[in-house]
Amino acid sequence: MLTDLFLNSPNNSLMTSLGSISDECFQNSKFHLAELVVREAQIGLMVLDTNEKIVLFNDWLSKAANLKETEALGKGLTELFPELKDSRLQNAVETSLQMGFPALLSQSLNRAPFPLFAGEEERRMGLRIEQQIQVIPLGSGDSPRFSLVQIANVSVAVKRENMLLEQAKELKRNLIIDGLTGVYSRRYWEEQTLIELRKARRACLPVAMIMLDVDLFKNYNDAYGHQEGDLCLARVAKAAANALKRPRDILARYGGEEFVALLPETDLEGATVVSKRILQFVESLQIAHKQSDVASYVTVSMGVSCGFPSEGESQEIILSEADQALYIAKAVGRNRVVLCKNKGFFTTDGNAINSSLPERRYR
Amino acid sequence: MFVLNDLQQDALLEIFNIGVGKAAAALSKMTSEEVLLSVPTLEFLEWEEAKQHLPGNGKIICGISQRFDGPFNTEAILMFPEEKSLEIIRYILGLDSLLERLTEMEQEALCEIGNIVLNACMAPIADIFSAEFRATMPEYRSGTSEHVLSVDVAETNRVIMLMLVKLQMEKHEIEGYLAFLSVLPDIQRLTANVDRFISEFTK
Fold first, then answer.
1. How far apart are CA B105 and CA A321, in angstroms?
2. Is some CB atom of chain A closer than 8 A to the CB atom of B135?
3. Which pLDDT value is given to residue A22?
4. Contacts (Cβ under 8 Å, ≥6 apart) of B98
5. Would you call A165 an interface residue with chain B, using a CB distance cutoff of 8 Å?
6. Residue B112 Cα, gap to closest chain A Cα (Å)
7. B121 touches A: beta carbon within 8 Å
C-alpha cells in the first residue's frame, strides 16, 4: 500500500532526479524509505534549491498550507507565500544558501510566518498554527547547496506556556491581595513598608502606621458563625480601606481580625484624621453585634504611631508603638483611637492616658 | 604562551573585530539600544587556566552556543548573567517578568537572538577567509561559565584559544560576553589562514 502511495504520487521531484534507477531497485533502496519518511513525517518539510525554488514540499505542509504539492514545486518561496517577502525567514533561507549557516526562528519572536492552519474551521477564523522553524543548509562546498525549512507545530507548547503565565499572574495577585478580605496581603505590606521607609529616610519625611483590631470578634464568630464572621471581616476591611485616600496609603490584613495601615509622608495629626475616618466608616456599616458589650454594632479599636526613619526609627519601632497604643485602646474600653507620642499614650483630643498597664511585647 | 606572532595576533583580532562589530549591530537592532564593545582579548592557555579567566564569577549565566567548523573550528558563545537574560528577552518580547526562570519559549527566543548575533559575527569572518563554515544549530545552556563554555574533557590538557569581547547595553545596565573557544590543532589551521590573509593584504 505504501508502494502504491509512492508510485501514484504526482510529479515526484526526488524520483525524477533519480530517474536512472529502475523501479524495483528504487523501491528497495534507502531513497525509497527516505522519500516515504519525508512524505509521512508529521512535521512541515520544504527544500529550496540554490535559486530559492521549491524542490520538496511534504504532505504535512501541503495539508496545512492547503496547497497541492504540484502547486508548490518549482515556485519561489515568496512567489508561493508573498507575505514572506523581506521577512526574517526569507533572509534566513538566503543566508543558509549563501553562507551555509543554519537559523532558528522561534515562535516568540516570529509567531506564525507561514499561513498554516490545523483545519478548515481555523482557516476561516484566521487562527494560524504556532510555528517553530529551523532553516538548515544541506550539502556543502563543491556540491550545489539546498536549504531545508523544517516547520514544527508548537501550538500546544504555546498554550501550555500561556496557562503557566496566567497561573503565575494569579499567584502573584494572591501574594499581593488577601484572599478573604480583598485588601492587601501582609507580605505586600511588608514589601511596600521597606520601600516607603527607605524613601522617607532619604527625604527626612515621617511615616505613620495604624494597627486596627475588630472589637470582640471572637464573640461575633460565636454568635453568628464563621461564614458571617468572614463576611463581617471583609466589609470592615473594605470600609477601612475606603477611608485611606492617597494611592500610596496601604491597608493590609495583618492576621486574624487585625489590620495594619501604612501612611507614607504622614505625621501623627494626619494619621489621626485617617483613623477617625476609619472609625466613622466602620460605624456607619452598622453591622449588628449582639455579643458586644461596647455597642450594638461592630466596632474597631486602633493604635496610631508615627516616626522619622531618618532619625533611626525603624519599622519595628513604629509598628510596636502602634501595637501598644492599640493594646491600650482595647484596655480602656475599645471603639476608639489611641495615639502613641514620645512614648506616651493619648486620646485623639490630646488627653494623656495613664499607661501603667503592663507593657505588651511586640510580636 | 606565544602561539601567534604579533602580526598574526593583530590580524586575527582585526578579523574578529569586524565580525563582532556586525554581531553588536544585530543585537542593537533587536533591542533598539546601543551596544558598546570592549577591545577583544585574545589568550592562549590551558583549560585549567582558562577557567580562571572566564567572566561571571561563578554566578549562573545563560549562554547560546554554536559550533563553527571551517578554516578553523570554534565554539562561539553569546552569554549574559541569568537575570539579565530574563530582562533582555522580556524586553524584546514585551512581556511582564512574572517568573524567575526563562520559560521554554523564552529560551528558544534567546536561542534565536544568539543565532542571529553569532551568524552575523561569523559571516564576515568567512568572507575574509573566502571559505565556508559549517555551523550547528544554536544551543541554550545555563550554569556557571565553566559549564556553559564546557570543553570536551579529553581536550582539556590542550592549549585553548580564548577570545573574549564584553558587550554593554547601558540603558538596561546589561553586560554580556561573546566568547570564542578553539583548541590547538585548529589554531594551527587558523594561523595558516591568518598568514594567507596577511600575505594577501600585504601584496
1. 50
2. yes
3. 63
4. A165, A168, A169, A172
5. yes
6. 5
7. no
Q: Whole domain around residue A207: which residue ranges?
A: 178-353
- Are residues B74 and B67 in contact, defined by beta-carbon separation less than 8 angstroms? yes
Structural domain total, chain A: 3
What is the ipTM for the molecules in this complex? 0.83
Residues A182 and A151 in one domain: no
Residue of A103, A109, A168 with shortest CB distance to B119: A103
Q: Does A140 touch chain B (CB under 8 A)?
A: yes
DSSP class per residue in B44-73: EEEHHHHHHH-TTTT--EEEEEEEEESSSE
Name all domains of chain B by residue range, CATH numbers in brackets.
6-202 (3.40.1550.10)
pLDDT per residue as tens digits for the range A187-220? 999 999 999 999 999 999 999 999 999 999 999 9
Quote the cell numbers at residue A98. 549563501
Single out the residue of A208, A212, A74, A91 nearest to residue A149, CA to CA. Answer: A91
Residues A213 and A340 in one domain: yes
Does the annotation mark A257 as catalytic?
yes
A207 inside 8 A of chain B by CB:
no
Residues listed for chain B: 203
| A222 and A125 housed in the same domain | no
Residue A362 belongs to some domain of the structure? no
Tell if the CB–CB gap between A106 and B108 is shorter than 8 Å: yes
Instruction: Residue A317: give its domain's CATH number.
Output: 3.30.70.270
Q: Are B160 and B182 in contact (CB under 8 A)?
A: yes
A100–B115 C-beta distance less than 8 A: no
Lookup: cell for B158: 590542550
Over its C-alpha atoms, chain A yields an Rg (Å, rounded) of 36
- B-chain CB neighbours of A144 within 8 Å are none
Report chain A residues whose CB lies below 8 A from the CB of B119. 95, 99, 101, 103
Q: Give the closest-approach CA distance of A128 to chain B in angstroms.
A: 17
- Same structural domain, A187 and A223: yes
pLDDT level of residue B131 (50, 70, 90 thresholds): confident
Tens of pLDDT, residue by residue over B36-58, are: 888 888 888 887 777 777 777 77
